[in-house]
Amino acid sequence: MKRIISNTLSIAFALLGIALVAGGFMGFRLGIDQNRAVVTYGFLVGNWFMLACAVLFPFAADREYRKIKRRLLLLLSLLSILYFIYFGVMWTLLGETGMQVSITILFMLLGIAVLFLAAVDYIMGKEAYRPMTIDFFKQLPYAYFRYRT
Amino acid sequence: MDYDAIVIGAGSGGLSAGGILASRGLKTLIIEKSNNVGGCASSFAADGYQFDVGACIIEVPWVHDWFYERTGRRREDYVRFIRNDPLYELVDMMDGNRYLMPASFEGVAGLISRFSPRDAESFLKFCRKQGAVMDRFSEVMMQTPQGRIRDMLRLFTKYPRILGSMKYIMSPYSKLMEDLFEHPFTRRLLGTPAVIGGLPPSLQSGFMFWQCYAEHVGMYYPEGGMGAVPRGMAIVFGEFGGELMMESEVKRVIVKKGKVKGVVLTDGTIITAKVIVSNANSKTLYERMIGEPDVPKAVIKGLKSYEFSPSCAVGYLGLDYKIDLKAQHMMVLADSRLLELFWSKMFDEGIALGESVGLISSPTFVDPTLAPAGHSVLTFITMAPRHLKGGRWNDIKWDYLEKGINMVDNLYLPGIKDHVTFKTIATPEDFENRINLLNGSIYAYSMSIMSQMLFRPSNRSRCIKGLYLCGASTHMGSVPGAVASGIMTADLALNELEKVV
Ligand SMILES: Cc1cc2nc3c(=O)[nH]c(=O)nc-3n(C[C@H](O)[C@H](O)[C@H](O)COP(=O)(O)OP(=O)(O)OC[C@H]3O[C@@H](n4cnc5c(N)ncnc54)[C@H](O)[C@@H]3O)c2cc1C
């Protein structure tokens, strides 16, 4: 059961990621009202979906991975809330082009992050890959500094 | 300038770099802290016995041949290698049964087929396809500096076939074993190289299967003991007029305006040179021998972030009889879960397990001249943490040695403890004190993907001009890795010197 929930969630994240990237692509073609609608619905649905996942789904993960999964999901939820605040503040300040540029860049970035989460979640869902993946992420922040040596 | 080049340390890396530099007519000086050349791969004499300090297995012999070819010589004229066959006598921890690991691939398949013919077939197939690809890639890797992105691209363009093996390289070793083999015996038999490669099976890359493959391509022991390997290189170095300064330690590297000028020894002597090649650990070099502000903060942060490879304790025994052995080396076969448990007890919790997984080597099996007539030499290497939980090595080392002797007596060679005429031990702390082996780590930094290639310190210093680094802390740890790094580093230094000239 755990495996099914975990895999379904990875697929759902992959779909959400693709949708966000596609939204970003489309951002340039839409007018300001349509873009505002994309922001509103995109974030209302996406945000709640992610927050709900952060609260509910870590329980479906194996114990040693639960904490990491919750953190990853909360981090992404936080990021999307920041986006929401950004668009909220800029709602009236951004013109059509500003809105288009913001949507294209920010949606694409968030989409890539969500796709990345989907991939990580899929790999971490497999017990055999978990220690190596955790080790990899523990060391990843130092990659640049190690490269400098 | 006193010299064209100064090499700090006469380990495998330093000697190969020094040899190449001297062979190109450069006035070269190697400064070595201890009274012996070879570092981890040296030998020492005591009570009429010759012991290997650490390394006791030679794989990938072409690297040694490469060094001699580059200096216009033949390896056979300086050091001869004797092929190990069988490779090991293995003691299965599950049931105490003993097996001989044959040298040939077919022989191994024959052993495996006693348990699972399907696994035997799978082994041969994987060796033929992936083993050969990984072996060729490591050959390319050993000959290519890996400090910059451009070097990495060159590496993959030189041998693009490796991209087809990425699936296995990115897979944990334990998973590879599960996917390839069905029988627990096969998994135990082929799973142990992961640990010898410096990581537990769950963290080790599937690439380490190469280690398993390389053993069967050829595993050797040098006539005259491991020390014969560095001695041969030191002779070549001397033939080209290279100078070796023994029992002298470099304390500081002099850097002015971002360029090396020379070194200061612990007795205060200053020696100047156009380039410095360091075989000392790169962290020690940058942090203690140079330091800020010559070394940028980002570099220090990178160095601090490295995890170390495992450390070892080695017991050295002189025995008054000829041991009845079937192979030079003996090893246990353990289930991967047990290996993981040992690993975490030792390296996460800091507990020294005298009975821990390791390697036994009796060099007199292949070269009886290493002991007085009728006597034998035996060393046992056990993985052991550098920092002990609630204690110090000096307080427990002699007890640890006794525990180790009991372990050898119980598990491998019953009755051996009544024949011990000489015994001593080197702990990770001893390795650190005697040959500056930082943390006592056998391969310097961790062998994980994030500490390799681009992410290991560069052979040409990125922050100080005229400074070059070689050895295990810049390249894949091991004797051939260190020798290869020395050759490449010398080439980089020669490039710069030729530009200057
Ligand atoms: C117990 C043990 C078993 C091993 N078994 C094997 C094996 O079977 N096969 C294998 O391939 N590899 C094995 N290894 C690993 C292998 O031996 C090392 O990775 C390799 O020899 C490292 O070579 P190196 O040139 O980097 O440096 P080292 O061998 O560490 O040599 C460095 C030298 O520099 C000197 N030095 C350091 N600092 C200074 C200074 N400031 N001034 C002057 N001199 C200095 C040291 O005294 C030393 O002689 C083993 C290692 C250990 C410890």
How would you characterize this protein structure?
The complex is a heterodimer of chains A (149) and B (501). With 149 residues, chain A is mainly α. Chain A has six helices and no strands. The radius of gyration of chain A is 17 Å and the shape is globular. Among the domains of chain B are: 3-42 and 58-79 and 224-307 and 444-496, FAD/NAD(P)-binding domain (3-Layer(bba) Sandwich), CATH 3.50.50; 110-212, no CATH class. Chain B has helices at residues 12-23, 62-70, 105-113, 117-142, 149-158, 166-169, 173-180, 184-191, 193-196, 209-217, 228-239, 282-290, 297-304, 336-348, 393-412, 428-435, 479-500, and strands at 3-8, 28-31, 43-46, 49-52, 58-59, 81-83, 88-92, 98-101, 219-222, 243-245, 250-256, 259-265, 270-278, 312-319, 329-333, 358-361, 376-383, 420-426, 467-469. In chain B, β12 (259-265) and β13 (270-278) form a beta hairpin. The longest helix of chain B is centred in the N-terminal third of the chain and has 26 residues, at 117-142. Chain B is globular. Classes of the chains: A mainly alpha (149), B alpha/beta (501). The interface between A and B is medium-sized, with 16 and 30 residues. The structure holds flavin-adenine dinucleotide (FAD).
